[in-house]
Amino acid sequence: MRAKIVSVTNQKGGCGKTNLAVNFAGTAIRHGYKTVVVDADPQGTALQWVGNAEEGAAVQIPVIGLSHAGAKITHEIKKYIDDYDLIIVDCPPAVESPVPQAMLLISDLALVPVVPNPGDLWAATALLELAERMMGVNETLRVALVASIVRPNLGMTKSALQTMATMKDNMPLFKAQINQRAAYPESMLSGDSVHALGSAAKAAIKEIEALYAEAMKQLHLKVEKKS
Ligand SMILES: Nc1ncnc2c1ncn2[C@@H]1O[C@H](COP(=O)(O)OP(=O)(O)OP(=O)(O)O)[C@@H](O)[C@H]1O
Ligand SMILES: [Mg+2]
User: Fold this and answer.
1) pLDDT digits over 25-68, tens only?
2) Ligand 1: which atom is nearest the Cα of residue 149?
3) What is the atom index within ligand 1 of the atom nearest the CA of 20?
4) Ligand 1, atom 29: nearest CA belongs to which residue?
5) What pLDDT is recorded for position 69?
6) pTM for the complete prediction?
7) Minimal-distance CA residue to ligand 1 atom 14
8) Residue 179 Cα: closest atom of ligand 1
9) Pocket around ligand 1 at a 6 A CB cut-off
10) How far apart are the C-alpha atoms of 7 and 108, rounded to whole Å?
11) What's phi and psi for 142, nearest 5 deg?
12) What's the CA-to-centroid distance between 68 and ligand 1, angstroms?
């Protein structure tokens, strides 16, 4: 099978891109999809994350570091296209990086995590405009916003979520959202997704599973891979 490519991208730093990329990959692997994360960010957070995994752990999330490739990342990624079902690309936050644009040209789905507050909404505009232009070139590209690091009890959250839902007609806001939870940074230490934390991370597991299911629908893939 030719891998589907999912890019996690937003120029805003710290909005939960790496968190979403690695937790998404850990979820897909648990549903039977052969999945790899491509770390396209020179910060190397995804690589460091999986470096914390215990040797012999039941689930190992493979991560390939391709931040050195710059705009040639698409060429590098194509080398892996027949080896995996899903390639999840953790894009760098730099505005001047050629990587988000290059990735949008070859992705099946772009997930744009946005923290629902005014500053993060403003900062997302440039990326959404770039994505809109790339949708004109890559006709199979779908783009969705994901509410990330959400604090549901904050007064501004509700109106920010409403704004996110209507920012671009062709870019829906996923129903599933990632709330602010200690389980996410804790999962970094486990070297795996929140699943590794077991029942202590029940709420986080439920929301990442819901998000995964919504993304798989966009990709026309079943939640469970039947071999
Ligand atoms: N839902 C969440 N709840 C709590 N903490 C979170 C959540 N998502 C991310 N974090 C934490 O916030 C920090 C930034 O998250 P992350 O590294 O995923 O963002 P990023 O967009 O990849 O950042 P960068 O732009 O620097 O690559 C990390 O410490 C991460 O563990
Ligand atoms: Mg990151």
Assistant:
1) 999 999 999 999 999 999 999 999 999 999 989 899 999 999 99
2) 1
3) 18
4) 185
5) 96
6) 0.98
7) 14
8) 1
9) 13-19, 41, 43, 45, 93, 149, 178, 180-181, 184-185, 188
10) 8
11) -115, 145
12) 22
Q: Which two tokens stand for residue 132?
A: 């809109």
Cα 139 to ligand 1 centroid, rounded to whole Å: 30
Exposure string of 158-167, with b = 16+ CB inside 10 Å and e = fewer, is eebbeebeeb
Question: What token pair was written down for 117?
Answer: 């507050």
Residue 211 contacts residue 146 (beta carbons within 8 Å): yes
Q: Looking at the CA of 16, which ligand is closest?
A: 1
Q: Which two three-digit tokens encode residue 157? A: 């959250």
- 72-80, Cβ contacts within 8 angstroms, sequence gap of 24 or more: 73/38, 73/40, 73/99, 73/102, 73/103, 74/102, 74/103, 74/105, 74/106, 77/5, 77/38, 77/106, 78/106, 80/3, 80/36
- Give the chain's domains with CATH numbers: 4-218 (3.40.50.300)
How do residues 19-34 score in pLDDT, each as one tens digit? 999 999 999 999 999 9
